[in-house]
Amino acid sequence: GLDSAARLLFRLLLAPVVGELGGLRRLVIVPDGLLYYLPFDALVGHPRRVLEDFAIAYAPSATAYSLMVRAKREQHRTAGRELLAFGDPQFRAGGRRSNAEGPALVRSIYRSTGFTFPPLPNSRTEVAGIASLFPEGQQKTYLGASATKSSLFSEKLDSYRRLHFATHAMLDERTPAQCGIALTPDGSKDDDGILRMNEIVEMKLNADLVVLSACQSGLGKLVRGEGMIGLTRAFLYAGAGSVVVSLWKVDDLATSVFMQKFYKRMQEGAGIPAALRQAKLDMMGSGVPAYRNPYYWAPFVVTGSF
Questions:
Q1: Could you tell me the CA-to-CA distances from 5 to 10, 15, 38 in Å, in that order?
Q2: Among 154, 188, 207, 237, which one is most buried in terms of CB atoms within 10 A?
């Protein structure tokens, strides 16, 4: 079963080094290839999950990690507002705001390669729940028809400490440049609603954190991790300190519950990797038995420095 696979992977990947760590409780993992899609904190040692003993962050490379640490040390974040969040976009071509022929065609191309655009009604609850943790003047949310790229680019992005996208992020191994985040098309013929990697790189951010809460991968073999790392790197290049993504698409109700726990832990003072770990432990101890299953909490990972 899954637990026996988690034990085997622990023996292969972590057991050789865990004994050398002494009392260290923070791990930075630089995965390779398919390992980008493995949540290391769900692996099982003897008899505990790695999550119970370690906080984990990921990095694209050792060099990138050292640069992130240095940037964090030297950067004085001046972002004055706490949160900019997007949720519950309207994906359906043919809706009031999204009936342009071009966008409909683009979405059909994405669908042909395995991406789906089911509505995410609970992402509205997710964004509202997170936003309620911050004073009204410190947060801005765009929901439904207003969750567009034009709304995003109308904002002074470097004034926000956190950007949160409660929507589908598409990770395409074959054409990483096609990776993107699905928002509401604004109705113009040039806007298909997809925020692509080249647009992300050009964003001027000053954020501690960017969260993509509903990622999905296209058809084909997931072997290189390029879709995942490409989208993450784009936000790091744009000026994000850390990026949280999901390694697979989780039921949007469970994601909403998880994300609200994560932000609550940050509000209580935990750093990003520690808050992510604590939210996972909260799910493991949940009164909802299904949420204790790693499927619902394991996919959320952070790339960034401690």
A1: 8, 14, 12
A2: 207
Indicate the pTM of the whole model.
0.93
Angle at 163 between CA 157 and CA 169, to 5 degrees: 115
Cα gap 154→157, rounded to integer Å: 8
Contact 305, 57 (CB under 8 A): yes
Contacts of 274 (CB under 8 A, 6+ apart): 55, 265
| Under 8 Å between Cβ of 202 and 171 | no
**48-57, 69-78, 114-123, 243-252: least confidently modelled range:** 69-78
Q: Is the dihedral of CA 149, 152, 155, 159 positive or negative?
A: negative
- For residue 29, the cross-strand partners are 58
CB within 8 A of 285, min separation 6: which ones? 292
